[in-house]
Amino acid sequence: MRLLIRLLCLLLTVAAPITAAAQTSGPQRTDRIEAELVAMSRWAAPGSTAVVAVRQDIEPGWHTYWRNPGDSGGATGLTWRLPEGVRAGDIVWPTPERQRLQGLTNYGYEGDVYLPVPVEIPAAVRPGSTVPLEVEALFFVCSDEMCVPETLTLRLDLPVREGAAPPDPRHGAAIQRVLAEAPTPAGIEARVRSENGVLTLTAVGGPLAGRDPGPSYFFPFEAGLIDHSAPQTGAWGPEGLTLVLSAGAKGQTGPATPLEGVLATSLGAFEIRAEPGPDLPGARGSGDLAPLPDAGDEPQRAAVGWTGFLQAALFALLGGLILNLMPCVFPILAMKAAALSAAAHDPARARRDGLAFLAGVLTTFLALAGLLLALRAGGEAIGWGFQLQSPAVIAGLSLLMLAVALNLSGVFHMGAGLQAAGSGPLARLPGAAGAFFTGMLAVVVAAPCTAPFMAFALGAALLMPWPMALVVFLMLGLGLALPFVLVSLTPRLLARLPRPGPWMERLKGLLAFPMYGTAAWLVWVFARQSGAEALGLLLLAAVLAAFGLWLAGLTQARRAEGGAGVVSAVAAAVALVSAIALAGVAARMPAETDTPAAQTSALPSQPWSPDAVEAARSEGRPVLVNFTADWCVTCKINERTALSSAATRRAVEKANALYLVGDWTRRDDAITAELRRHGRSGVPLYLLYAPGAAEPRVLPQLLTEGTVIGALKAASPVRPAAEAGR
User: Fold this and answer.
1) Mind listing the pLDDT tens digit for each residue in 66-119?
2) How is 547-609 classified by DSSP, letter by letter?
3) Residue 209 near residue 122, CB atoms below 8 Å
4) Residues 642, 707: contact at Cβ < 8 Å?
5) What is the CA radius of gyration of the chain?
6) What are the angstrom distances between the C-alpha of 429 and each of 187, 419, 488?
7) pLDDT tens readout for residues 673-691
8) What's this model's pTM, rounded to 2 decimal places?
9) In terms of Cα–Cα distance, which of 196, 174, 155, 178 is closest to 96?
């Protein structure tokens, strides 16, 4: 970010118009901000340190930034031009406010702001003279919709006289108040430790000892060390306080250096330096801390109000309905269609199966949502589909899908033995248990996908109180199950389906192949997550599982003929237990360190990182970012179609755009944090950064070649007219 700001400063020096270039003092104005250089005292004495301040009068709806701007923006920069011997110090930064915008949190100021700066006056300056002070101030003035760099040249002729000076009648009291309230060191001892992406900050002593600190918040000096958008919770004790912070992209491996910043409390704001180390005693035990209130809390409260809740619930219902059309749900759609055909002419059974399927979907959604919310409340940086980032879960699902496919192929049967084709189990366990299991399987298979409307709903749900969030997840499950339930409760529709017969057994065998395909896809994802050696073990586990289920089928046939089948049953159990054990060993093997998504991308690409984005933007290049995962079927379809065509490649080259791939196949907390900043909880997410734009454009989740090409054209730098005409 600092490199970007320096480059922007250079560009603005060369190309941007400088407001108030004339060497006159007084306020300088733009449409968004008025600024002037003012003094705290009426004059300065020779050999003293005077205090001047850059005063900002910011228009309503706009803001500027603190030394660490947070998730976006840039700090105010000052470039001084001073007489010989006169030296200006660093800005004395007032405690900032938190400014929330969608999934971003920034640190900055609104309204009337003073940034004091100490200025050393040489002792050789003659009383009765003036010291001309001139500063070029670069402000990043931003609103909810845009961000404009403003460069203003400010001047102040500071009188020099003997003796102590009274405060300036217009600005002296305000500057003195800012200096009095500005964060300063206060003898506070602090420690920070890291565990699983969570930073625990303890601070004791000084003004914190023996007092309730009230609502508290930590503002780090350096961006990227903490997740600025995550809530900060904690407790206080007889000697100080404890804050629990979510680590940012730079803090995931733990603080290798001290964590420095401002600790804002109701007792005041203090600069602290937290050394890496264990928790300090006396920092908890007296009560919980309340969050520090600021102007940014209002949008947060509005987002979880009844209007926002009802909107998120409606979008979740629509997203669940659309989820039925996403590619990853196709195998389950086939199973649901088969189950409907089997029960088509038995209305009571159809109603029972429909409601059981709904119960399976809602129960599984509720379990996944509860686990997701609990882990995030504990500081884990995870999102929707998090379970598929675990090789152990992928390995287990691949064996489960293989078992379902073998069941459909008739290798073994679930339920009370073999039955006639017209009444036998079809793609499920018998009765309501089978429908419930199918509902669970539908959610598990649908987990890699997010649909339109669903992304907003899930992003909003993760900011809500947990009862509201669970209702949003349940509405998503209701949308997924609703088509099947409506058909199962509509006798007229069921009566139009063919009657059961031998054709159902052929359909049963045909439907096995989508499940084989799903199992093969999961094995491929596992290979991408874990590498070739782990893949070999999982394939061996699959062979053993298939052998064990074949033996189970022999046992069922032997018993149907009146035999015992003890040997085959024992052999089947041994084979299945061995398969599960081998899959567990494979899942625990160390992952290989390649970057699969970037390697197989159809477009020339580089791995995503915040630094890569900033470097390209500083060069004036558009940046197309693809957050993807190998287990996301929608992602892969978009990459094989809209992002792999020759026309798209030409558009990328013509725009001189950089294509970055963020691979979320394995857990990556930095990508999770970036998804959260844009109000998303899962992939796919496509961002297009246009040169000069403060925020990226979010592209649709279902991409077309025309959408990508049109967005790249819109983001391309405008060429001079003479060049465009050639």
Assistant:
1) 999 888 778 899 999 999 999 999 999 999 999 877 667 889 999 999 999 999
2) HHHHHHHHHHHHHHTT---HHHHHHHHHHHHHHHHHHHHHHTSPPP---HHHHT-SS--EE--
3) no
4) yes
5) 32
6) 68, 13, 18
7) 788 777 676 778 899 998 8
8) 0.43
9) 178
User: Rounded to the nearest 10 degrees, how much is the dihedral formed by the CA atoms of 439, 445, 449, 455?
Assistant: 40
Short-list 157, 455, 463, CA closest to 302: 463
- How far apart are alpha carbons 133 and 157 in whole angstroms? 6
By the 8 A CB rule, do 500 and 341 touch? yes
Quick one: average pLDDT of 532-549?
89
The CA–CA distances, whole Å, from 643 to 608, 647, 660, 723 equal 16, 9, 12, 28
512-to-242, 409, 421, 545, 603 alpha-carbon distances in Å: 55, 6, 16, 16, 35
Average pLDDT score over residue span 50-79: 91
Strand partners, 291: 216
Q: What's the CA gap between 399 and 396, in Å, rounded?
A: 5
- Tell me phi and psi for residue 700, to 5 degrees: -60, 155
Under DSSP, the state recorded for 171 is T
Distance of CA 522 to the CA centre of its chain: 25
Dist. CA 188–CA 204, nearest whole Å: 6
pLDDT at 550: 92
Place of tokens 């995962």: 629
How far is Cα 117 from Cα 374, in angstroms, rounded to an integer? 46
What is the model's pLDDT at position 120? 94
Secondary structure letter of residue 720 according to DSSP = P
- Amino acid found at 109: Y
Q: What is the DSSP string of 435-462?
A: HHHHHHHHHHHHTT---TTHHHHHHHHT
| 319 three-class SS | helix
**Residue 132 is inside which H or E element, if any?**
strand 130-142
- Distances in whole angstroms, Cα of residue 281 to Cα of each of 161, 284, 695: 53, 8, 43
User: Residue 560's CB: how many other CB atoms inside 10 A?
Assistant: 13
Q: List phi, psi (to 5°) of 449.
A: -100, 150
Contact between 626 and 684 (Cβ < 8 Å): yes
Pull the structure tokens for residue 629. 């995962």
Tally of CB atoms within 10 A around 85: 12
3-state SS track over 350-412: HHHHHHHHHHHHHHHHHHHHHHHHHHHHCCCCCCCCHHHHCHHHHHHHHHHHHHHHHHHCCCC
Q: Which residue has the tokens 């190998």?
A: 630
Q: By C-alpha distance, which of 132, 120, 128, 127 is closest to 156?
A: 132
Structure tokens at 90: 């660093």
State the Cα angle at 686 between 637 and 674, rounded to 5°. 125
Cα 86–chain centre separation = 47
Cβ–Cβ under 8 Å, residues 94 and 62: no
Helices 391-408 and 503-530: angle between axes, nearest 10 degrees: 160
SS3 543: helix
Query: What pLDDT sits at residue 499?
Result: 65
* Euclidean distance between CA atoms 627 and 608, whole angstroms: 8
Task: Specify the 3-state DSSP secondary structure of 415.
Answer: coil
Residue 389: count of CB within 10 angstroms of its CB:
19
Tokens of 323: 């989820």
Q: Are 95 and 181 in contact (CB under 8 A)?
A: yes
